[in-house]
Design a protein that fits this description.
- The chain is mostly helical.
- Helices cover 74% and strands 0% of the residues.
- It is built from 11 helices and no strands.
- The chain has helices at 2-29, 50-56, 66-91, 98-125, 130-163, 171-196, 216-254, 259-293, 300-322, 326-337, 342-345.
- Helix 4 runs antiparallel to helix 5 and helix 4 (98-125) runs parallel beside helix 6 (171-196).
Length: 354
Amino acid sequence: MVLFVAGNFIAIGSFHVQIALGQKEKIMNGDFQNTSGEYGRWLAQPGENASAAVSSVLPLPESVNPWDIVLCTSGTVISCENAVVVVTIFHSPSLRAPMFVLIGSLAVADLLAGVGLIANFAFAYLLQSEAARLVTVGLVVASFSASICSLMAITIDRYLSLYYALTYNSERTVTFTYIMLIVLWGVSTCLGFLPVLGWNCLKDESTCSVIKPLTKNNVAVLSVSFLLMFAMMLQLYIQICKIVMRHAHQIALQHHFLATSHYVTTRKGVSTLAIILGTFAACWMPFTVYCLIADYTYPSIYTYATLLPATYNSIINPVIYAFRNQEIQKALWLICCGCIPPNILFRTRSPSDV
């Protein structure tokens, strides 16, 4: 009886060994099929523990693109930096002049752009949905469009404040400022809604641009619009430069300044204008030109390499337009420590502060 039972165990063990050897031979020959629908390694290599063998049969998550991480980091910096500007302007009752309203509009637009970059990263890797993708892309398009239009509005406001210096603080200027804000945010919102309303390339990949799901025609319209606004800003800054030079010369004659002092002041003003316009062009021009000449077949690394400097413009904007302003500096000091340093409190504005 004992011999019979032992013989049965040996026979069953031999049968299991034959099945295992047969499966291993099928795997080595490529004939074994994964009937569970999962992919991955089914057998652990020698020396691997059980947990490694179990984890090897689970689907591996999609790898994160390093460029997307850099864009998300850029969006975080943009959001934090511009949030400081927004809080400072809206918290200070003294910052209600048209210039500060436009700077606040620029900060809000850049803040939304940063939030859009963060949301795009989150939805791309956490919530993979076409609807969410269209919404985030629309938010990024609308916010960056509002940012560029706000820069244009600030340029117009600076020109008017110099050309119509005596009547600039009238009620007409305030009304014109709010009209500019309504127009620029209305146009930017419409541009952001275009992908959501169907102007996208999800159904026809051949119409895609370098930024999916935007169509090539959509990106072309945005790029041409940017070039036109840049040409207008260039023309306005040339006129501003002429006015600054004329004002500096008049002040020098009235106060009997030396020619050297007049030259230094004028050169500083021109340098400031050149930095403002040069920074804007250096950030946005490569991406704009690339969008006009490229399509979805181009390597994505070129898109990332030109888009990333464009996002840096939203990081630089608060430094150029907000933190350099004396009134915003005073308000920021009051919010942070409740005092204003004497070097900021008693500093006078010069013709080069444009």
